[in-house]
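[agent] plan:
  1. take the single chain provided in the ticket
  2. run structure prediction with default settings
  3. attach structure tokens to the ticket
  4. add a short note for the reviewer (M.T.)
[agent] executing step 1
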Amino acid sequence: MNARSSDDVYAYRPSAGRSISCVSPHDAQIAIGPVLPEDLGILFTWLNDAQAAGSDFSYRPVDCVSYKEWLDRQLQASSQILFMIRQLAQSRALGFVIFKNLQPAYRAADMGIRIGQEADRGKGYGTRATRLALDYAWRTLNLHRVSLNVFAENRRAIAAYRKAGFAEEGVMRDAAFTDGAWHDVTVMGAISPCG
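[agent] step 2 finished; step 3 output follows
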């Protein structure tokens, strides 16, 4: 009997991320699924990324106590759903997508998304994740409308949202102040093709 190193033993076991990706909403390249314990560190880093925050909201550092409270609220809040975005091939976390302000009576919600690292942006992961999230919104949550806000100068994000099914609905002038300047915010919406 050959002895295997501990690395060899673990190489034959699928990771929790790979296992959950197989049963979560997915396409040929990515999946959206629940946050796993192995995701907590990287999610904390992404929430504290000042440069990335500058592209979609004002930067405000999140301390570990506030982070834990936020995670606990995610578990209890029926008005929010948080998904991690994972690359299927490597079972690697790429970012997150969140539904906020779920309003069942109006069949509506707001959505936010972030691809965590700059090296993973511009590769279509955001568009794919947005499509999967919208499919989930229409088919599982029975939503009719999903809205999001994006800085008007974030043309890459706006193009990705358009490809995924969102349309621009208007611009709020000087609606956000970050990095020492006022920014216009584009309002976008997607309507369910199912009615």
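[agent] step 4 note for reviewer: Residues 14-191 form a domain with the Aminopeptidase fold (CATH 3.40.630.30).
[agent] ticket updated
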